[in-house]
Design goal:
Length: about 750
């Protein structure tokens, strides 16, 4: 039945008449216009495509992982497994993570040799692209390790985030890499989801701004794609972090209106504003339609509506999973047709999906129309990346430029702007480094280099003692097991005994790469049904409080945690998420006042999992009722973050209080640093639609600016409220600006704002 429907759909297109598949296009082989640099890319693509056999085309629609057997031997010569050589007989679209465990210069040497082999061993000399990931910098040995995306988003500094991804793009290209399966434009609103830290947070506008910065940085504003930067492959299109129960691979239920207004905008920004070179489809479905088999999503919206010119890659093995996991295809061949027609250009990893196409074309020649369409996009990508003209990298540059002083300094700066001060009871912080004292550095997520980092920053008058006490789990990267309670209690006592020797305690708690991670398809768990700190970490804090010494919590984590005990009993709390390789230096700098904290929460922090969903921008009617025996408010609001100084907002003014559906209204506010230290503040603009034809959100972030003020200094900040900010998806499912009353709210957090209003008339 499925096969019949797909065939019927394919027959609407004019099939390419193929008289002989063997030797297809050989008559044009002498006309290698595609190697001429001065010709337009589209001309080069068509010329090359016309000379390709079916097998060569399908090879350009497949990608495999270098872990199958790609490396250098002891003589630093290219070494393959037998299976890899066979995969390269007709060329290949790309190879994932070649040389990721090598030093930058050795990876560059490998990738040069690998590219040379690919080019010389396929008939037309088509190069391959080499692909990485970038959750914390380039996912490869020897590269600068930055904070994870949700940490960077906590800086609310788009310029800084772009600079970080610019370095990531350059370091990847030095290694001989060309694309990255990053960044994630998913909206993360369920902290049960183990991949939360790979995203930029819960808010559509904040995520959109961060995505534009990340993609633009990776690609060098698209100007660096030919030689100095890499292409971004924005993922997971679309709605993947909305999985039911927060479980990886679970279903996704999103209303069409929510999809348009909240989930798609970051992806649209990646395409329209930042020109992302690639898009990766989502593991999941949307309301029952598998994303890898969704032509409305991958063709109509992505290409026809947004004008996307790049290529779409499957997530790992997901074309085949349309058959054996999603079960929307009755056979593997049906799965291939569904994905191909929907708009998936490259099949990542599988041997049971697009590899079937040559055989399928024998009886279904109309599939060639779709194959050519996919191959055009892949070849175009390779031309845009300059791979035909400049396929190799400079090994010496890889050695000299990767993880250089500028990159390390930027990682430290990003950390300093990303840490969020959640609590500072009795202005305990900053600590006086000139006062002789002993500080205990303790807790299960303390790093082996933490003490050295603190000693580097603190100076000579502070003595440090440390005690990890216990690990959160057994460290199994597949399915970790919590450390037994008896062992944990023993560790708590060791920590308490050590802390008694100190004057101040810095407690490192939260979660780690084992307790919050991706849950892989074949085995492995990473999601949780509880967001309290794992194990006996709350008990540890309470035990330390009994000593009677000030306790400062450094919260290191990858998912939002319900930190009720920490919020109630710690004397100060620094929310650090997961920082760079230099993160402990940044924590020490903030503790001793070298840096004034300026991070703001990119998510709402719930009191418990039962409050979910709790994102601030829910429909207003969701806030009508609370639960019995519980606080209705979150523990910490979206956009919240303290400073060592104070800021006063005043004089909120609108350029006009009436406008029409095409008007732009200017709003301004004055911010004054009323404290005694210089500091940075994130000025946040929210819009509230008082009434609409459909139920409206409580409020929505529509703009923000990060500023720095000296003590006593004031600054007037202005925003333009454009029609685009006021749009909603109406009853007819079309986006429009509806007349009516709106509130403009400006402040330092979503729950701490000045308010004015204006009217939009017909």
């Amino acid at each position: 039945m499925i096969r019949h429907k797909i065939k019927k759909h394919i027959q609407k297109f004019t099939p390419i008449l193929v008289l002989c598949l063997i030797g297809f296009g050989f008559s044009n082989l002498s006309e290698k216009k595609y190697i001429q640099k001065d010709l337009p890319i589209d001309v080069r693509v068509e010329n090359l495509l016309s000379q390709m056999t079916l097998e060569e085309k399908v090879a350009q629609m497949r990608m495999f992982h270098s872990g199958l057997g790609v490396g250098l031997n002891k003589r630093d010569s290219l070494a393959f497994s037998k299976g890899v050589k066979e995969r390269l007989n007709y060329g290949i679209a790309g190879i994932k993570s070649p040389g990721d465990r090598y030093s930058p210069e050795r990876a560059a040497e490998l990738n040069n040799q690998l590219q040379e082999f690919v080019i010389k061993n396929n008939r037309l000399g088509i190069p391959a692209f080499f692909v990485t990931e970038s959750y914390s910098g380039v996912d490869a040995h020897g590269c600068t390790q930055f904070g994870r995306p949700i940490s960077l988003s906590s800086s609310w500094n788009t310029k800084l985030v772009k600079e970080v991804y610019d370095i990531i793009g350059r370091e990847a290209r030095y290694r001989g890499l060309h694309l990255t399966h990053s960044p994630e434009a998913d909206i993360a609103r369920d902290p049960r989801f183990g991949r939360m830290s790979e995203t930029f947070g819960e808010d559509t506008h904040l995520v959109s701004e961060m995505i534009v910065s990340a993609v633009s940085g990776l690609q060098g504003d698209s100007l660096g794609l030919e030689s100095t930067h890499i292409g971004a492959v924005t993922k997971h299109f679309a709605g993947y972090a909305q999985v039911s129960g927060g479980k990886n691979f679970a279903s996704v239920e999103i209303s069409p209106r929510t999809l348009i207004d909240e989930i798609l905008p970051p992806f649209k920004a990646a395409v329209v504003e930042a020109n992302t070179l690639g898009i990766m489809a989502s593991h999941g479905d949307i309301n029952g339609i598998a994303s890898h088999a969704n032509p409305e999503l991958l063709t109509n919206i992505l290409r026809n509506d947004w004008g996307f010119k790049g290529y779409v890659v499957s997530d790992a093995n997901d074309v085949g999973r349309l058959h054996y996991f999603m079960k929307v295809a009755e056979t593997p061949e049906d799965a291939v047709r569904l994905a191909l027609v929907a708009g998936v250009d490259i099949d990542l990893y599988a041997d049971d999906a697009y590899a079937l196409l040559p055989k399928m074309v024998e009886t279904e020649p109309a599939l060639l129309e779709y194959i050519d369409q996919a191959v055009r996009r892949v070849l175009r990508t390779k031309f845009v990346l300059g791979l035909f003209d400049n396929p190799y990298t400079d090994v010496q540059k890889a050695k000299e430029m990767t993880r250089n002083d500028a990159a390390k300094a930027l990682a430290k700066k990003a950390d300093e702007e990303s840490i969020i001060l959640l609590k500072n009871e009795n202005t305990l912080l900053p600590l006086n480094r000139n006062k002789k004292r002993t500080i205990a550095l303790v807790g299960p997520v303390i790093d082996s280099k933490t003490k050295a980092a603190f000693e580097k920053i603190a100076g000579t008058d502070i003595d440090f003692i440390e005690e990890k006490g216990f690990n959160l789990t057994n460290g199994d990267g597949v399915t970790p097991i919590l450390t037994p309670k008896s062992e944990t209690l023993k560790g708590i006592q060791q920590i308490v005994d050590k802390a008694k020797q100190s004057d101040v305690i810095v407690l490192f708690v939260g979660d780690d790469k084992y307790t919050s991670k991706e849950a892989y398809f074949s085995g492995g768990l990473g999601d949780r049904d509880n967001i309290d700190p794992v194990g006996q970490q709350d008990d540890l804090l309470l035990a330390l409080k009994k000593i009677g010494k000030p306790v400062i919590v450094a919260l290191k984590h990858r998912r939002t945690l319900s930190i009720n005990i920490i919020a109630a009993h710690a004397d100060a709390v620094l929310d650090c998420w997961e920082l760079s390789e230099f993160g402990d230096e940044a924590i020490a700098k903030i503790l001793f006042g070298d840096v004034t904290p300026s991070g703001k929460l990119p998510v709402t922090v719930p009191r418990n999992i039962g409050q979910m969903p709790i994102h601030y921008s829910q429909k207003e009617i969701n806030f009508k009722k609370s639960y019995l025996f519980s606080e209705s408010t979150p523990l910490y609001a979206f956009g919240y973050g303290l400073s060592y100084t104070t800021f006063k907002y005043s004089n909120l003014q609108l350029s006009e209080t009436k406008g029409n559906t095409t008007s732009t209204i200017k709003v301004s506010v004055e911010i004054k640093n009323t404290g005694t230290r210089s500091g940075k503040e994130v000025v946040q603009l929210y819009i509230k639609d008082i009434a609409g034809s459909v139920v409206r959100p409580m409020k929505e972030l529509k703009g923000f600016k990060k500023i720095e003020l000296e003590p006593g200094e004031s600054q007037k900040i202005s925003f333009a409220i454009t029609p685009e900010m006021l749009k909603l998806t109406g009853l007819d499912m079309k986006q429009t600006v509806e007349p009516g009353q709106f509130e403009v709210q400006i402040g330092g957090a979503s729950n701490d704002v000045l308010i004015s209003s204006f009217n939009i008339e017909k």
